[in-house]
């Protein structure tokens, strides 16, 4: 038997069922229902040999640490990425700049979180479908308007991996008044673990010391989620 590693077959976007293609999903469900990778795939349009455009989008987000990292990447860095080139790098930077200008021009139009359902609606589309565990933070101003989203950790998470200082570093830089943290359970069951509760308690205590309110910790499953504040898990007075 040939000992060489067998190539992994990756279907192209055109080979996916129509209902699963990013553009068709956007047309049917609206842009808010798509993940960041799917939206990025629509901008990039085509993949490269052996990688679908969704694979390329996912790789870029992982390599640069999300949209914020992509926005900081130089034009030459993006051009050098496999599957990019001049045209796609220009399309990507133009789209990111338009988003930045819209935020600066109309801060009152930023999403506002009134309830845990509002936060869950944003986060389900981002991490609810992922096969690996992701831990992310929503940054909020004093009116609980969303200033941004950052993914801090990926993979199998444990209490020792999550550093409380890292969670608050970007919040301090952005002069945030509050944050919402969230992570997904790829198993689909959003029931919090003892580690989830312990991390939440540490985050709430650190937030009090720093003057940054931890509004909630959401655990996202498949089509389900749990608000740890609502269940008073880690938010004990």
Please provide the ordered H/E string of secondary-structure elements: HHHHHHHEEHEHEE
Tell me, briefly, the overall form.
Answer: globular
Main CATH class of the largest domain: Alpha Beta
Question: How many individual helices?
Answer: 9
How many β-strand runs?
5
Mean pLDDT: 83
Proportion of strand residues: 5-15%
Low-confidence stretches: 1-6
Number of structural domains: 2
Distance between the termini: 63 Å
Radius of gyration: 19 Å
Order of strands side by side in the largest beta sheet?
2-1-3-4-5
The CATH topology of the largest domain turns out to be: Cytidine Deaminase, domain 2
Any chance you could write out the topology, listing elements then pairs?
Layout: H1 22-29, H2 36-44, H3 53-64, H4 67-72, H5 75-80, H6 86-105, H7 116-127, E1 134-140, E2 146-154, H8 164-173, E3 178-184, H9 194-210, E4 213-220, E5 225-227
Parallel strand pairs: 3-4
Antiparallel strand pairs: 1-2, 1-3, 4-5
Helix pairs in contact: 2-3, 8-9
Can you characterise this structure?
With 237 residues, the protein is an alpha+beta fold. It folds into 2 domains: 13-105, DNA polymerase, domain 1 (Orthogonal Bundle), CATH 1.10.150; 109-227, Cytidine Deaminase, domain 2. The protein is built from 9 helices and 5 strands, in the order H-H-H-H-H-H-H-E-E-H-E-H-E-E. A hairpin with a 4-residue loop joins strand 4 (213-220) and strand 5. Helix 8 crosses helix 9. The longest helix has 20 residues, at 86-105. The protein is globular. The chain starts with 21 loop residues before the first helix and ends in a 10-residue tail after the last strand. Residues 1-6 have low confidence and may be disordered.
């Amino acid at each position: 038997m040939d000992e060489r590693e067998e190539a992994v077959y990756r279907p192209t976007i055109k080979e996916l069922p129509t209902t699963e293609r990013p553009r068709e999903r956007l047309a049917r469900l609206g842009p808010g229902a798509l993940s960041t990778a799917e939206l990025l795939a629509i901008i990039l349009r085509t993949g490269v040999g052996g990688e679908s455009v969704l694979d390329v989008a996912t790789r870029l987000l992982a390599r640069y640490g999300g949209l914020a990292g992509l926005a900081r990447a130089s034009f030459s860095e993006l051009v050098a990425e496999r599957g990019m080139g001049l045209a796609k790098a220009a399309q990507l930077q133009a789209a990111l700049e338009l988003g930045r200008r819209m935020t600066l021009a109309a801060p009152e139009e930023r999403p506002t979180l009134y309830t845990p359902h509002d936060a869950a609606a944003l986060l389900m589309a981002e991490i609810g479908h992922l096969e690996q565990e992701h831990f992310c933070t929503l940054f909020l101003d004093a009116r609980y308007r969303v200033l941004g989203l950052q993914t801090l950790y990926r993979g199998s998470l444990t209490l020792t991996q999550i550093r409380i200082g890292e969670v608050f570093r970007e919040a301090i830089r952005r002069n945030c008044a509050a944050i919402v943290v969230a992570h997904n359970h790829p198993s689909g069951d959003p029931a919090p673990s003892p580690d989830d509760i312990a991390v939440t308690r540490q985050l709430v205590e650190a937030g009090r010391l720093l003057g940054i309110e931890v509004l909630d910790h959401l655990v996202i499953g498949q089509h389900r989620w749990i608000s740890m504040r609502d269940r008073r898990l880690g938010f004990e007075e």
